[in-house]
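Cross-check.
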Amino acid sequence: MDLDVFVTSHRAEWDRLDHLLGRGRRLTGAEADELVGLYQRTATHLSLVQSSAPDPVLITRLTQLVARARATVTGTRRAGWRDAALFLTAGFPAAVYRARRWWIPTALLSTLLAAAIGWWTGAHPEVQAAIGAPEELRQMTRPGGEYETYYSSHPAASFAAQVWTNNAQAAAMCLVLGAFLCLPVIWILFVNVLNLGVGIGLMSSAGRLDTFLGLILPHGLLELTAVFVAAGTGLRLGWTLIDPGPYSRRTAMAQQGRAALGMAIGLALVLFVSGVIEGFVTPSGLPTWARITIGVVAELAFLAYVYVLGGRAAREGETGDLEAAGRSAALPVAG
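Predicted model, tokenized:
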């Protein structure tokens, strides 16, 4: 695209849009219709310039014009309870559903890796010796040892809040750091899987795997699912940087980044539920089967939420991104 010819061809439209915006609300009906048309065309011009001839000065001017026009056309809007309800019933579950091709393989591979690490740790005494001295390992795995008292070492409410904060931070890091070519996400995920696998291996070697699973499963099913969703979304964000698809890299990253931001909020709520279970159910005196049942019910409820509400919303076009009025217009730049 010849930038000089493009600017010469459309400068009059941009100047006219700037003039109409300067008049504020003192527009006739015809002028208001003209403003909307100019806004739409200028948004298209901005997308073309960004993808074909990214001149910083021109992009800045057109971005400012589009932003001012969008504010004038759509008006000032405050988020309310309706927005929160739409987010919880459509936006968030649809975003999780649409990301399933990333987080389901992440979950399966992570589970297999945790099982492999658990087997390797439990079957090889030399690996256990590298982890800690025999007496230290006995203190961890014995009845009433560190693995068991960990869940009742603090008051339930404060423990639940601490767990929720830590897990929410880990999920947010996966979502945010995915933009760095996926590598930080892989490392965070590996550390979590490694800790789980070592715990499985040590308790299995002590003949107490059933106790360990009885402590992990009530909250761990939902907690790990949330971490896998965050990791999968982070990996998708990082892959978008490598392969943006039909849109420009900037536009594709903006779309995925906005969806990831909403995902962080939704996953914080999911992790709050798992934190409550970990703080109040896991260390409770309930039978093991009852505690595990609560964890399974919570996990199945989340999956139904994603696949029923999220699947329906996704089929209706919901992406988890901002509404069309709240984001910049963009056109594909590749087939």
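Confidence is low (pLDDT under 50) at residues 324-335. Residues 290 and 330 are 51 Å apart (CA to CA). Passed to J.P. for a second look.
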